[in-house]
Design a protein that fits this description.
Blueprint lengths: L4 E6 L8 H11 L5 E5 L7 E2 L3 H6 L7 E7 L3 H13 L9
Antiparallel strand pairs: 1-4, 2-3, 2-4
Amino acid sequence: MSDEVSAAVTITHAVGLHARPAITFTKLAKTFEASIRIRGRDDQPWVDAKSIVKVMALKLRTGAVLDMRARGDDAEAAIAALKGLVERDFDETGEA
C-alpha cells in the first residue's frame, strides 16, 4: 500500500459541492480502490468521499477549500482526478 497523498482545492462551482456536483464527485471517487477522505474546514471531520450523504453533509459552498487525502495503490491518481474535477467545476459548463 502506498503512502498517503493529499491536496487542497478551492470550490469555484456556482452551487458549491451540492446535489449534481456531489454526485459527480462521489461517482468518480468510487472508481478508485484507494480510501479517499475529504473535509472542508480544519474543524470538520474527515468523511468518506465515496458516500454521497457524507459529502453533501459537509455543505461546502463556493469559495470553500476542499481538503482531500487518499491512501492506496491508486491514491495519487485518485487525488489528481478529483482535484481536476473540482477545478473544472465538476464538468458542468454554464450550469448553476
